[in-house]
Amino acid sequence: MLLNEKILLVISPHPDDEILGCGGLIAKIKALGGKVFVIMFAVGNAKQIGGESSTAMRTKEVKEVMAYMNVDGYEIIYMDDNIHLKLDMIPRRDLIDLIESKSTYSINNIDPDIIAIPSLACQNQDHEAVFQAAFTACRPRVKKGLRNAMTVLAYEQVDNLWTSRIFKPTFYVDISDYLDNKITALALYATQMREEPNLRSIENVKRLSQLRGSEICVKAAEAFECCRFIC
């Protein structure tokens, strides 16, 4: 099977993006005997639309979510109020270096089979910055001892429904058996989820998963834009 015993690296601009975009994929990889690592770029204390971000609360939530999802390793690169929500101000070269080699779970360090990155179809400047850096970091490589990740996927989020660039899915993962895992993990990010009918509500995440599922005739799915697939 395509996802059996694979190593997945998820690049997440902020804690919760990894579950919103590919919580089902994470759960499925783990169920199929694979390993999952997550790089989260930034968290900090800041007011947000509909709530606030607290570094202490969010790092506590991250610990609970990562334990629930049974990931094999995760890291938060920046816990800094001056960087949170300002990743677009960091030189792209620095972000690329972190994804490629200068972080604990970089591409060079874990040699992933699958890399999941945020979609460019997003109004969030942090997501755009991380996409551009991650896409560059995933470029084909010929350096001795380093191989290319076989699959690079850009993941969708409910926030992508408000964007000037259309998200065009070309790769689907059936998460019918793992939707409950995704929803439970999101509920643990209590400070970040919003009340219905907000785009970031639990109910809306369920609806999007069911919609994507209907597109491939299953109960629930996650959709991705396939940047690379080698077989």
Descriptive overview:
With 231 residues, the chain is α/β, with parallel strands linked by helices. It has a single domain (7-229), classed as LmbE-like (Rossmann fold). Helix content is 35%, strand content 22%. The strands form 2 sheets. It has a 7-stranded mixed sheet with strand order 5-2-1-6-7-9-8, with helices on both faces. Strands 3-4 form a two-stranded antiparallel ribbon. Helix 1 crosses helix 6, helix 2 packs antiparallel against helix 6 and helix 3 (92-100) packs across helix 5. The longest helix has 15 residues, at 17-31. The mean pLDDT is 92.
Summarize the structure.
With 231 residues, the protein is an alpha/beta fold. Helix content is 35%, strand content 22%. It is built from 7 helices and 9 strands; from the N terminus they run E-H-E-E-E-H-E-H-H-E-H-E-E-H-H-E.
